[in-house]
Design a protein that fits this description.
3 helices, mainly alpha, 109 residues, 83% helix
């Protein structure tokens, strides 16, 4: 079923990364649709932030699973840099979610 040069484990990691990317794209499309239909920038920003957090969670999981294939110090350094960047991005999106929710809660109806 799998090509000889691609181990089944690697295919699963690629699938997890793909799901993460598709989640981000789907949430961005939903945000654009919400923006066009309702005109609510806050709701669109919240959707993008939620999608980014969820998608980056999948992408981080895929990156962690790739540690099984790490063999050199250069690969370890690259893994650390990518993981750190994804964690920082995820925290920024969580912060943005809180900011948008706080603004929506404090604004008059």
């Amino acid at each position: 079923m799998w090509p000889r040069d691609v181990p089944p484990f690697h295919g699963g990691v690629v699938l997890i990364d793909l799901v993460g990317g598709l989640l981000i794209v789907g949430y961005v499309a939903a945000a654009v649709l919400a923006l066009v239909c309702t005109g609510s920038v806050g709701q669109a920003r919240l959707l993008v932030a939620e999608g980014a957090v969820l998608g980056l969670s999948f992408k981080t999981a895929g990156t962690l699973l790739k540690t099984v294939e790490i063999h050199t110090w250069e690969q370890i350094g690259m893994f650390g840099a990518v993981l750190a960047l994804r964690i920082v991005l995820k925290q920024l999106f969580v912060w943005e979610q809180g900011r948008v929710r706080g603004r929506r809660a404090s604004s008059p109806p």
